[in-house]
Structure formats: C-alpha cells, structure tokens
Amino acid sequence: MRRLVILRPEPGAGRTAARAAELGLDPQVDPLFAPRAIDWVAPPPGDFDALLLTSAHAARLAGARLADYRGLPGYAVGRATARALTGAGFAQVVAGDGDGTAIARRIAADGHHKVLHLAGRTVAPMEAGSLSIERVAVYEMLRTDDDGLAGRLEPGSVLLVHSPRAGAILAERVDVGRRGDLHLIAISPAALAACGTGWASARAPDMPDDERMLALAVRLCE
User: What SS3 class is residue 168?
Assistant: First the structure.
C-alpha cells in the first residue's frame, strides 16, 4: 500500500489522518506550516449583515471578539469551517461546498450586501460580485523551518495538498527531479496548479472537500 502524506496544519491534519486510517490507509502527518493568532481590530457588528469565514482557523483563532458577531448569519466554506462556527456559538450557519466565490454568490442570493470576512493574512482569490466585503485578518500561517520533506517521502507516496499556499511550498521543497514517483491530490484546481508539474499523477476532486480527496486517495493507495 502506498503511504498517504498529509501536508495540512493541525488540527485539520489529525482529523484527516484519523479518517484516512478508518478507510484503511497508511497516513503520515507532515505539516508545511502552522496557524498563529494575530491581533486584530473588530469592526462594529452593526456595519454588516453577514459574516463569512473561509477557514476553520478563523473561528478557532479569532478569540473572544468573535462572539460580537453571533447576531449575524454566518457563512462558511466547507463543513469543517461550519462546524467551527457552530462550536463558537453561532446559531445561523450556512455551509458552502464550493469555494469563496460560490459562497459569495449564495450570500448575495440570500439578500445580504455588507459582509465581514474574518480570514488569514493570505486568502484565495474570491469574486465578490455585488457584495461589499471587508476582510479582516485574524490569523497567519507560519511556514515550518523543516526543509527535509523531500528526503522523508517514500517513492509512490500520495500527497494531500489542502491549499494553493501549501502547493507553492511543496513545489519549493520537492524539486522536479524528485516528483516523478510521487502522486498528488489537491483540494482545488488552484491548489493543483500551485504544485507545479512533473508529478507521477495529479488530481483534484470535483468539489473542494476532504472526504472527496480521501476517496481519490483510496483508489491511488491500494
């Protein structure tokens, strides 16, 4: 069986590894970076009619001021982000299965206009459409200092890439000459493109979802 290498940061990496083990896979957690909370100024809740989170890290690391926005309907990209918002005390949470652009369309379709987006310092591109979105960074992702990833990867390993930034770091740390015996599964076409070329195989699921990534991994690892 091929080794499954999970490159996302904790705590998501642990959840993915546990689910992979349930599916009979052989997971290895090797995060490329780790999240860290940063100081932020909380805008008045009355300035907005919806709250958007595109990562569960924002819910976990925003701190006590996140509670100021519980009166707003919450929108989340992905089920993990929706669970994190619900766990933070939000009663109205809509989970989107697509990317940020897809959830922005859903917010607009629900009749909202002014949106607060709590996010990391770096976010994937999003088309706001008719929305007025104010983005506030509440966390940052710090790269690990470990450059020995390429040497730890067994030939034939399947790598899970959960963001475009992770893909870019992976492309830096695994040169083209080493990629030919490694397989990639990326969460989105953007993440896939960031990984560069030369991999034994490279795929993205039809929707940006951890479970769909693992379904692809089951077929590759067996």
Answer: helix
pLDDT tens digits for range 78-104 = 888 999 999 999 999 999 877 888 899
Give the whole-angstrom CA distance, residue 49 versus residue 53.
Answer: 14
Closest alpha carbon to 12 in 84, 90, 62 = 84
Measured distance CA(78)–CA(95) in Å, rounded: 6
In 71-163, alpha helices (H): 79-87, 100-109, 149-152
Residue extents of the structural domains in the chain: 3-32+145-221, 35-142
The overall pTM is greater than 0.90: no
Fold of 3-32+145-221: Rossmann fold (3.40.50)
Q: Is 3.40.50.10090 the CATH number for 35-142?
A: yes
Domain 3-32+145-221 matches domain 35-142 at the CATH topology level: yes
Chain mean position to CA 197? 21
Whether cis (ω within 30° of 0) applies to the bond prior to 35 is no
Any residues with CB less than 8 A from the CB of 151 and at least 6 apart, and which? none
CB 36 within 8 A of CB 60: no
Place of tokens 């475009």: 164
Three-state DSSP at 46 gives helix
CA 172 – CA 16 distance, rounded (Å): 24
Helix (H) or strand (E) holding 183: strand 183-186
Query: Looking at this protein, which amino acid is placed at residue 190?
Result: A
